[in-house]
Amino acid sequence: MKVNINNLSKLNPNDVNLNTLKININILLKKLFIINLINIKPITNPLNNHNNLILRKDKIKHTKNKSQKHYILSASNKHNYFIRIPNIL
Length: 89
Description:
Layout: E1 2-4, H1 5-8, H2 16-32, E2 41-42, E3 52-55, H3 66-74, E4 81-84
Parallel strand pairs: 1-3
Antiparallel strand pairs: 2-4, 3-4
């Protein structure tokens, strides 16, 4: 399951499962941005990554690892970054 946060608002807002998914993702993101993001990797082949949460680079600001933050923010716009999330979401 690849979840694009930006596309969630375009789907049916009356879908209970979708609303639950959006709430869970928001809670997950709030927790992730407080701690060090150690599992961020570039997507080389999206077809091989089934449990990806795509993050916008401008949202990755709270990581404590300066070299990792610099690597992410200095990458070209063609790169997408993902965090592996459990299948329960």
